[in-house]
Amino acid sequence: MRRDTGLGGMREEMRCFWVIAPLVLTGCSIFGSPSSGGSRLTLNDPYWDRVNVEIVITKSSDCDNRTEGYISSREILMRKNKTETIDVPAGANVCWRHDRNPNNPVAGAWSGWTRATMFPGASSDSDI
User: Fold this and answer.
1) CA angle 73, 127, 43 (to 5 degrees)
2) Over the stretch 42-75, which tens digit does the pLDDT of each residue have?
3) Is the domain of 20 the same as that of 49?
């Protein structure tokens, strides 16, 4: 029967820590970046207290096209000086538009589209 004096066990734990810590940190950086050649766009609302925003991810040059090249869309409520980050697959563009009159929104009344062409692995920021 082996008796632990305390120091030997601590050395083993520290050795395991130094082996495992870099692996955990590497995993964190993998999950914190766009996947497989994709890109990331961060939108900011510097203007309005509240504004509805429609975001479309598509490979089409037409942001209204919901057939060939369309990937996904969503509507979000953005608040002043808050950001929204969108992960974009490789080869896709991001389109967004907001309420035509954010101070008096009307359902379905949107501004024109803004489109960002994203480059693989790149991150970009834009105001809505």
Assistant:
1) 40
2) 999 999 999 999 999 999 999 999 999 999 999 9
3) no
Above 90 in pLDDT, residue 6? no
Contact between 87 and 42 under an 8 Å Cβ cutoff? The reply is no
pTM: 0.71
CATH at 95: 2.60.40.4150
Look at the block and give the residue holding tokens 């207290």.
49
The confidence band for 116, taking pLDDT boundaries of 50, 70 and 90, is: very high
- Give me the DSSP letters along 7-68: HHHHHHHHHHHHHHHHHHHHHHHHHTS-STT-EEEEEE--S-SEEEEEEEEESSS-TT--ST
Residue range(s) defining the domain that contains residue 21: 1-32
In the chain, how many domains are there? 2
